[in-house]
Every structure is written in structure tokens, then in C-alpha cells.
Amino acid sequence: MGLLTEGINEVIATTRGNAAPMGIICRGASPHMVLFRGSHTAENVVRDGWIVANFVYDPVLYVRTAFDDLPKEAFLEEEVCGRMMQRLADAEAWIAFDAAVERSSSEAHVVRLTPLREEVVSLRLHPVNRGFNSIVDATVHATRYVRTGDPWLGDLIGHHAGLVRKCGGARELEALDLLQQYIERQAPR
Q1: Contact residues for 134 (Cβ-Cβ < 8 A; gap 6+)
Q2: Residue 117's beta-bridge partner residues?
Q3: For the DUF447 domain, which residue ranges apply (predicted)?
Q4: CA distances for 61 relative to 19, 31, 65, 125, 131, angstroms
Q5: Which long-range CB contacts under 8 A does 104-109 form with residues at least 24 apart?
Q6: pTM value?
Q7: Domain 7-120: which CATH number of 1.10.10.1400, 3.40.50.300, 3.20.20.70, 2.30.110.10
Q8: Which of 29, 35, 119, 173 has the highest count of CB atoms within 10 angstroms of its CB?
Q9: Taking the domains of the chain in order of start, what are their residue ranges?
Q10: Residues 6+ away with beta carbon under 8 Å from 5
Q11: What is the pLDDT of residues 116-160, one digit of tens each?
């Protein structure tokens, strides 16, 4: 499988009717993820035993999927090794995985991923954009901030927001505005 690289690969993961930004950890023998208990993604993986990594370069989609559900038409069905799986219709590439819970704690599951099929749908070059990368980082921090209200996370979000304003384009600025709306609606007071 050639789409993943060493380290943590940020993707939008899909399970049945669900999409969420996730990191696939590639260190050592096989890729894995950490899924927090109580999330739709964790529940679906435990129930169904599969997940699809979608490679998407849309900062707004990263923010939306972190906080909201996508409409049904955002997903496409794919038959992979005799199982029906769902991927994002707008994915530039995707990898379908068998997903097996390797160990669990009271907070999370460590899920071992076995690649089953990958496909490049459209090949596009994406230069490094610090604004895009900062939206991904700010979104990760925001998902935790809205649960905890931790001021340190708020400071990190502010740092990344500054980088988005400095380095991002129109789509990154739109994503930042959307992220700030989600934070205002959901953060503890």
C-alpha cells in the first residue's frame, strides 16, 4: 500500500454513514488508529470491523466532519473483499481496511488496520500549505476544547488561527470561520 507514509497520516475516515478526521499511525509493522470510546467511529468499527481512509484536501470538510454529520449523498458504496463499505464521494484517493480492536482502555480502543484495497481516484498536486495544516491542527485541538474548555487548547487554537490568516487561502479562511462557529456553539461556558 503506497498511499500512507511513516508517521501519522491525517485522513477523513468513513464508517457506515459516518465521516470524521482521524490519524492513521504508521510506525512499525502495521498501521493502527486510536479511537475514543463513545464516538460514532469507534462504535461502528467495533460493530462492523472496517474503516476507509479518505484522502481529501478540503479544509472545510475536515472541520465539518469533526463536528457534524454529512448527508447521505456525500458517501459512495464500494464492495471490498465481499463487504459493502462507504467512502467519500469527493475523495481523491482511499484505502479500505479491515479494522480489529487490538486492545481497549476505559477511554479508547487501539485498532490494528489491515489494508484491503486502495484506489487513486484523481491525481492532484497539493503544495505544502501551512494554512491547511493549521486548520487540521486547530480542528484536532477544538474537538478536545469543546469537551474540556482547557485554556491551553484555546491558546493552541488561537496560534493556529493566526497561521491560517497569514498562510491560508480563501478555503482555509472559510474553514477557520466555520471552526470558530462550532467552538462558540459547543464550548463549555
Answers
A1: 160, 161, 163, 164, 167, 168, 172
A2: 96
A3: 9-120, 129-180
A4: 10, 24, 6, 18, 14
A5: 104/37, 106/37, 107/36, 107/37, 108/34, 108/35, 108/36, 108/37, 108/42, 109/34, 109/35, 109/37, 109/42, 109/45, 109/46
A6: 0.93
A7: 2.30.110.10
A8: 35
A9: 7-120, 130-186
A10: 26
A11: 999 999 988 899 999 999 999 999 999 999 999 999 999 999 999
Amino acid at 110: V
- For residue 111 the three cell numbers come to 485498532
CB count in 10 Å sphere of residue 96: 25
Residue 110 CA to residue 81 CA, distance in Å, equals 23
Please give the CATH number for the structural domain made up of 130-186. 1.20.58.290
Model pLDDT for residues 90-125, shown as the tens digit of each residue: 999 999 999 999 999 999 999 999 999 999 999 888
Q: In one letter, which amino acid is 106?
A: S
Residue with cell 467495533: 46
Residue 83: its H or E element: strand 83-88
Q: How far apart are the first and last CA of the chain?
A: 45
